[in-house]
Amino acid sequence: MNKIYQEINTRTNGKYDGLRFSEIVLGDCATVTVSCRKEDRAFVNTNAREIESLLSNICAFHIPIKIKISDASPTQNELRAAVVKFTDKFSYVSSIIHTIAVDTENGYRVRMKMHDAMYEFAKNDYLPRLDEFLKNKYVDSIELAVDTVKFSESGTVYAATSGEKKEYSIKNAQPIIGALTPESARSIASITENAYNLTACGVYAMPTSFSSKGGRRYDRFVLYDGDAVLQCRFSPESGVSLADPSLLGKTVCVFGNAEYDAMRNEASLAVRELSVCDIDDIRAVQSVPVPKQYAIISPKPYEEYVQSSMFDGGFDTPPALNGSFVVFDFETTGLSVLHDKPTEIGAVKVVDGKLTESFCTLINPRRPIPQEVAIKTGITDEMVKGQPLFEDILPDFYKFSYGCSFVCHNISFDFPFLLKAGNRCGYAFGDRRTFDTMSIAPIAIPGIQKLSLDRVLEGLGLINDNAHRALSDAVATAKAFVAMHRILAKK
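The structure assignment produced for this chain is given below.
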């Protein structure tokens, strides 16, 4: 396209220097997008016939030409969206999309981060093409800045690309359960088969205590290593629990028997021993400053018209409800945290037992939604087309949930999606307290046989009017969370 721009200005002595010819779409006619500043729109309209004639002559079109005018001075969000869309065409650099940042306060600047090996390819292919694309699309000069890093300096919690690192060296192991003091441990991503007496390592998150229907207690937590998550289960003995908030964000190694679910591409481990340790190549994501304002999705005041008297905070708040909680739910393309993506997030904030704000948006998963999933959730490919990416709304959700504990129904499904995205984008979610309404239900609702959200709500006399949509499920879970703690406070 630059050749068209150059030829037109050569023939007209620079008359159209303030225009860019950013796109041609061929059909019954050739639709040419002419990008210009807002103040130049009248100039383009006045000279439309001359521009069409020049384009027809230079491009040798034998079909009519139609001019479409677009703004060549983008907003911050428009510029980032254009760069993300362009980047998505290059599969070998598409993983950097979450690092793309745009500054428009002092001119236009696009900054991104990639590791040095990727940069060696990108500097001769992707980056020159991106620079050409931006020059063709926008009148104003746009600076490209690339921060090259080694794996160990990356913004993720681990040093190697998921699946590449097979084993880590362990130092300074301090046993919590058992006498585990290994010199090395398997990476989570390398666990792709059933294994006995396996030692693995990662960052500790999501401690939750459960009770089985028979009253037997057990603990659940996850270890994470970048994109990989290991679901861990421990049966407490002698009153010792591994659902320990003091372990949040610490690197640990665990010993036990592993099971691998090939359908979900997810490993789990029955833990027998655990030690806190030092691992040179793994570290927890550090909290970043809270964004000053919401960029894409802003929360809304929570309004309740049904059963409002039960959840308006007009009661003595049980101690367990003191503080701030964010109850959230995802709808996704499938069940694998490694391969599937969210299509919707819904969340509600509960402060001292009162539902105060809601947060909700559809999400573009950048992949087709399976038909059976679309039937279940009602979310179709057409609905998510043009919606923000998960990485784009993550700063807003980080701001919305900052300083709050997390609550879900079956949190071991939803939380890893948030954890994985936060790790990649540099937002710390793994250091939060987490609660699961599924773990509270057997204690609060005597005799309950099934722990699905619908059955828990039925046991509490509550209704979910729009099941399998994220906000409705999040609100229903929040109500169950409040109601069950009020029941437990009376026991």
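Interim note for the steering committee: The CA atoms of residues 337 and 417 lie 6 Å apart. Confidence is low (pLDDT under 50) at residues 151-163.
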